[in-house]
Amino acid sequence: MKARPIPVILDTDIGNDIDDNWALGLLLKTPELAPKLVLSCTGDTEYRALVAAKFLDRAGRPEIPVAVGIPAPEQPAPETLREWLGAYTASDYPGEVRCDGLEEMARIVADEPGETTVIGIGPLTNLAMFCRHYPGLVSKCRLVAMLGSVYRHHHGEPGAIAEYNVRIDIPAAQTVFAAPWREIVITPLDHCGLIQLNGERYRAVKESDDPVATQITSGYRAWRAYFGKTDEATETSTLYDTAAVHLAWSDDFTQFEALRLVVDDQGFTRISRQYGRPVKVAVGWSDLDGYLDLLVARLLNRA
Q1: Is the pLDDT score of 267 beyond 70?
Q2: pLDDT for position 273
Q3: pLDDT of residue 1
């Protein structure tokens, strides 16, 4: 008997780094996951919700509702896809764009008879507020998040850093780590900081006419233009957030450690055997090439 797809809420700061677009695309191509809501976080959350809505619309998936998360104008969050978004508005989306993001998230979790997986691929402002206002619902959820740096950081460089998704809202990260999630699984920079497509893998996505792939590549061109890059790309940027989508349904290709972690006041994810929260941590890859091949195959409907 085929397993029921895992109900998923995606909390994303899409419209900043382009890896969120790749992660959303992978989510749409993962039949093991059933996206119930895309919730925007960080900075101008209305803008980010519209970026998600346009992506879903153009990718042919407007049945997925989008919701606006907590606005945080004080957060330094570049709006790299403003030009790509253009004049697109909520009324252009054939599906539903909700302004009450946290309430909609709570309703979905409450209505789900079993566990909901929350995939967090942005700063944790929304998720902390969810923990504060709906503590009884947190225990119905599993959190899979791209955050932190434990032993290494970008591109496998040794040493921990205060990673962006934690550092932007440190009190929120501390609240999330203290909440009664059924499980916390994270892909820190140790793991996700190595994900990049180049060569034939990148060309296959770039040259595809698949609706999801074309939205990824059009957004990538706009993202590069924001930073003044007008040459033809031959590889992707680092696709951190795709790892969180993958770990929401599969442990394949990944090396894990069970660690007790805390978030300190400087935004570091520290191992603390006395005070830390038990976390399933992806610390490395058993087969990075295998993951990259799967990522491309999923995006192009080959797996």
Answers
A1: yes
A2: 87
A3: 57
Tokens representing 271 are 């191992």
CA distances from 117 to 42, 249, 281, 289 (A): 20, 9, 16, 26
**How many residues are there in the chain?**
303
Task: Let me know the angle formed at the C-alpha of 122 by 257 and 75, rounded to the nearest 5 degrees.
Answer: 130
**Residue 262 in contact with residue 300, Cβ under 8 Å?**
no
Which 3-state string (H, E, C) describes the chain?
Answer: CCCCCEEEEEEECCCCCCHHHHHHHHHHCCCCEEEEEEEECCECHHHHHHHHHHHHHHCCCCCCCEECCCCECCCCCCCCCHHHHCCCCHHHCCCCEECCHHHHHHHHHHHCCCCEEEEEECCCHHHHHHHHHCHHHHCCEEEEECCCCCCECHHHCECCCCCHHHHCCHHHHHHHHHCCCCEEEECCHHHHCCCCCEHHHHHHHHCCCCHHHHHHHHHHHHHHHHCCCCCCCCECCCCCCHHHHHHCCCCCCEEEEEEEEEECCCCCEEECCCCCEEEEEEEEECCHHHHHHHHHHHHCCCC
The separation between CA 15 and the C-alpha centre of its own chain, rounded to angstroms, equals 12
| Nearest-angstrom CA–CA distance, 80 and 78 | 6
Neighbouring-strand partners of residue 183: 142
Q: Tell me the pLDDT tens digit for each residue of 175-219.
A: 999 999 999 999 999 999 999 999 999 999 999 999 999 999 999
**What's the mean per-residue pLDDT of the chain?**
97
- Alpha-carbon torsion angle 142, 104, 93, 214, nearest 10: -10
> Which residues have a Cβ under 8 Å from the Cβ of 81 and sit 6 or more positions away?
14, 15, 51, 219, 222, 223, 226
Q: How far is C-alpha 149 from the geometric centre of its chain's CA atoms?
A: 16
One-letter identity of residue 226: Y
Q: Considering just the CA atoms, what is the radius of gyration of the chain in Å?
A: 18
Q: What is the value of pTM for the model shown?
A: 0.97
Q: Give first-to-last CA distance, the chain, whole Å.
A: 19
